[in-house]
Amino acid sequence: MLKTLYMKTLLDWSAYEDAGMGDAYADIPKTGGNFAKAVAVCINSKACESQNDKGVMCPSYRVTHDSHLSTGGRVRLLKAALNGELGEFPFADPVLGRAMDLCVSCKGCKRECENEVDMALIKVEYLAQLNEEEGVSLRSRLFAHTPVWLHRWPGLRRVIAWRNASKFLMMLGEKLLGISASRQLPVPAEEKLQVSKTQAIDNWDDIASSDVIPSTEGREVVLLVDTFSRHFDPDIVAAALAVLDAAGYRTLVAEPKQPGRPLCCGRTYLAQGMVAQAKAEAQRMIEALLPHAEAGRPIIGLEPSCLLSLRDEYKALGLSEGAAKVAAQALLFEEFIAKEHTAKTFRLKLKPLDQQVLVHGHCHQKAVGAMKSMRKVLKLIPGLSFDLLESSCCGMAGSFGLEAEHTAVSWEMAGQTLLPALRLAPHSLVLSNGFSCRQQIREGDGRSSLHLAQLIRDALSYE
Ligand code: SF4
Ligand code: SF4
């Protein structure tokens, strides 16, 4: 019996309820319900197979020129699967498996395909279905639980540094876990995140009290500290706090309602198709942020894929009504500053920076059009000269580039436009707001990149 016939989807696909209905040419697969409709929004125009250096779509096609490895190619295989053409458990079909495996979930198609095929979300459902059938691999569980390991085991820093320094351990990690022996793993920072008493929220009753609601003249904001900034780049958090403070905002750092492990958006679970765990993280996040959203405080995030999951993937997780209120207040750091500047409420004294900066946007920043905000904010720094690179996906894409079978294609993606552009300007500063992009650039080019918050902090004028 074809298992997809009774496919119970793990994500909420109701947003596609009416997609293609009444259209005789919509070619909606026979099984899969609303998930099938999400797949069928592709009109087979093959724009995702154009050889074009602009935009992001589709990194895996750009490096392989294999039509199975474009967005539309994946759609064709998924349709065959949902129409019962690929056997009893079609999601395990090797050709479909390779096609989905090499999708880097960049969301390039969601923005650039004329019909907004959301292959990154489709991949989450695909992986979740595969996990139900085959179980979750040890490597997937290791990567997915990163926020938990980092919180529970401060000694992980030494273990990772030890592994990175030992050829033997790197080879062993590849053999046992499939983590590439040729890649360095990111090492957590030695220094801990410092949050002052006034920024930490240690009394939840205060948050809901009328003293705090509504927020004072719109100058109160909430900073969402993601797992990656917290554990690997706490200086980015310090820089964001310094900039917001200098601009006259009172910044509260979002904390979980129940003391314990810090908040996490659930992205690492989604990337491995672990929907139930992602939903549990998302619910904690919504519970923590809802009082702020209801108080009208902007919720500001630093890591694009983490903050933007509140506005995007959370819609497919079947969360409470509060999720929409939180999403409405969630902004990237650059979006927040650009918005305040447009409203003429952003007050910051900046000194000239005589620097040339190359800007590599995270794919998810590009997918929501946030590079416009980046441009606007960078223009606020006097004397700064900058280029927004047409660099598609850097190829790291979360843990993708660390996985042994993906390392070569990850470097091919980086080698298409990003690394050549960086090599042409060896003395420029590099700006990159994505944690995994910074890691790829560090290994591929040897330069450390700055987050926008760090660059603005460098330009703060205290005169
Ligand atoms: S995925 Fe989008 S761009 Fe590619 S063929 Fe389908 S509709 Fe066209
Ligand atoms: S999410 Fe990115 S890699 Fe995946 S199909 Fe879309 S454009 Fe291609």
SSE order and pairing:
Blueprint: H1 33-39, H2 59-64, H3 71-82, H4 94-101, H5 108-112, H6 119-134, H7 138-144, H8 146-152, H9 156-165, H10 167-177, H11 204-208, E1 220-224, H12 227-231, H13 234-246, E2 250-253, H14 267-270, H15 275-294, E3 299-301, H16 304-311, H17 322-329, E4 330-332, H18 333-342, E5 356-359, H19 363-367, H20 371-378, E6 385-388, H21 407-416, H22 418-423, E7 429-431, H23 435-445, H24 452-459
Parallel strand pairs: 1-2, 1-3, 3-4, 5-6, 5-7
Helix pairs in contact: 3-4, 9-10, 13-24, 15-17, 18-20
The protein binds iron/sulfur cluster (2 copies).
The site of one iron/sulfur cluster has 15 residues, from helix 3.
Question: How does this model look, in words?
Answer:
The protein has 463 residues and is mainly α. The chain folds into 4 domains: 3-134, Fumarate Reductase Iron-sulfur Protein, Chain B, domain 2 (Orthogonal Bundle); 138-177, no CATH class; 204-340, Glutathione S-transferase Yfyf (Class Pi), Chain A, domain 2, CATH 1.20.1050; 350-459, Rossmann fold, CATH 3.40.50. 45% of the residues lie in helices and 6% in strands. It is built from 24 helices and 7 strands. The strands form 2 sheets. It has a 4-stranded parallel sheet with strand order 2-1-3-4. Strands 6-5-7 form a 3-stranded parallel sheet, covered by helices on one side. The longest helix is centred in the middle third of the chain and has 20 residues, at 275-294. It starts with 32 loop residues before the first helix and ends with a helix. Mean pLDDT is 93; it is low at 207-215. Bound molecules: iron/sulfur cluster (2 copies). One iron/sulfur cluster binds at residues 42-48, 71-72, 75, 109, 113-115, 117.
